[in-house]
UniProtKB/TrEMBL annotation:
[4Fe-4S] cluster binds at C409, C412, C416. One of its GO terms (biological process) is thiamine diphosphate biosynthetic process. Its cofactor is [4Fe-4S] cluster. InterPro entries: ThiC, ThiC/Bza_core_dom, ThiC/BzaA/B. This is Phosphomethylpyrimidine synthase. Belongs to the ThiC family. Substrate binds at N69, M98, Y127, H163, S185, R186, G187, D226, A227, C228, R229, E265, Y292. Pathway: Cofactor biosynthesis; thiamine diphosphate biosynthesis. One of its GO terms (cellular component) is cytosol. Its EC number is 4.1.99.17. HAMAP family: ThiC (MF_00089). GO terms for molecular function: 4 iron, 4 sulfur cluster binding; phosphomethylpyrimidine synthase activity; zinc ion binding.
Amino acid sequence: MTYTTQMNAARKGIVTKEMEAVASYEGLDVQDIMKEVAAGTIVIPANKKHTCLKPYGIGNSLKTKINVNLGTSRDCMNLDVEMEKVKQAVDMGAEAIMDLSSFGDTQKFRRKLVNECPAILGTVPIYDAIVYYNKALKDITSREWIDVFKMHAEDGVDFMTIHCGINRNTADRFKAMKRQMNIVSRGGSLIFAWMEATGNENPFFEYYDEILDICNEYDVTLSLGDACRPGCLKDASDISQIEELVTLGELTARAWDRDVQVMIEGPGHMPMDQIEANMKIQQTICHGAPFYVLGPIVTDIAPGYDHITSAIGGAIAAASGASFLCYVTPAEHLRLPNVDDVKEGIMASKIAAHAADIAKGVKGAMDWDNQMAAARQKLDWDKQFELALDPEKARRYRAESTPEREDTCTMCGKMCSVRNMNAVLAGEDVDVI
């Protein structure tokens, strides 16, 4: 029996090799994975042309996944540096890489990623159209926008963000509802500007059925972009954000009717007390489709530390229903991240994802923590380093400050509670002098 997409296979009762890989990684029954793929609550982004892919599932019942954004810009266009970021991200366990390149030979880099990178690969074709056609925004035709989308599918991209929720109606509502930060989505602002300049409908909305045909042919997962995501706390949960979400819910149903997998992109800046409600609203309006969030960033005042503000919001979001966290680096709002920034961003997101998995009871999530607790109780430093999310940093910190005794650290010394309790409970004398 043949199939076109992972969703199409699942609805026909076909277990694909990708579903088997996801079930094995998650420690779940493959039949359960298949049922959720059929329902749209799990997606497995897996373009038929991405042959070196290591498949992952994205869904609320699975481990929370993280995405790493990278790519060239006009000011920073060193492909070798970007590939170093890719390698580091994969080595650190990031499940997805999103190429946001906006300058240079973007197709060369994209094809290199498809040929060499095992992570799920995502792009935003709106950016690439600007590079590819190299002409004024208003002069790009509707046909050309769609052609770039198809080119990315043909190149082997697993998921693509398209900002199709900001159509003429939602754009008019946005203009009527004044915002502090306007539109902060790069792709959303480009499409909005194009619609304003040409007077035309958003081509990704107008020709959505053609987009679905392309997705069906290559098994591309749609990531329905949030052009109206809030860019500051003041704009969070406003009319523009929610109205666009309603449109994305309608587009999700249309995609599912064509067996096309869908994720929904979610809010950027948002107060902590609004995050859980936003996750529940999304699940209702978008029928349980996996939610992919940038942050949310929970305060606007911490440039240089937005990997932390994002991790706080990401942990709450994932514990409340989000499936996929887009990492944020310390360079957010300031510059293109370097290799060290990428590492910091990944670590913060992985901590958030793991904390959320524990909170929502993902199978086996707390086993790792229990092993670390056992190693700490035994003062088994090597085992602690082995289990650490960042073993290199943990080893370095201990090496930088050598204690008098191996069974202590330089903070507590002989007053170490773990050491002394082990001794007391073993009937031994406690020496603290």
